[in-house]
Specification:
Oligomer: single chain
Largest sheet: 6 strands, antiparallel
Strand order of the largest sheet: 1-2-3-11-6-9
Structural class: mainly beta
Order of helices and strands: EHEEEEEEEEEEHEE
Strand content: 35-45%
Number of strands: 13
Helix content: under 10%
Bound molecules: 6-phosphogluconic acid, nickel (II) ion
Radius of gyration: 16 Å
Length: 188
Amino acid sequence: EYKNPLGVDIDLETGVIPGAKKLVRRLSDLKGYFVDEKAYEELLKENPVVYEVYAIEQEEKDGDLNFATTVLYPGKVGREFFFTKGHYHSKADRAEIYYGIKGRGGMLLQTPEGKAEWIEMGPGTVVYVPPYWAHRTVNTGDEPFIFLAIYPADAGHDYGSIAEKGFSKLVVEENGEVRVVDSPKWKE
Ligand code: 6PG
Ligand code: NI
């Protein structure tokens, strides 16, 4: 039995995919993720939405594909720019493609050994996430950063080790500039 093909138009202003499943992550869902705990507690009084995901997902089967937009809002916790949780794929060898739609930001990628890479993203940027690399997006601008991700339907999300140790690098604002610096929370 063949599945039906599907065409949908992403709203390029808002990132919304019609008919997609919507997921909302507020600051309270990111407890322990930011380095500056005082700034986190302070901002928690407002508990802003940090990002939303609009996903069209298939059954977790080998060979099929999912796709999702993410709308990552601008903001900071202390000096750290708002980011997505970040994850490895549960099937760690599953790769992924990102495509920048609106706003500015970037992706932090990291191997299990802690080797990190930072790739800047804007509208039109394509990022290839190779197998085994954890990935987190960061909004370094002052408008929503919107992008599309396309990933194997059986990839899954493994949040565990990132939730615990974070990435080896942080993306912060320093004297009005975007800096990628070593994370004090990172330990081998
Ligand atoms: C995926 C993609 C992407 C990601 C979102 C939210 O594998 O599904 O990498 O859709 O899930 O940008 O980021 P987190 O899953 O890290 O919260
Ligand atoms: Ni992913």
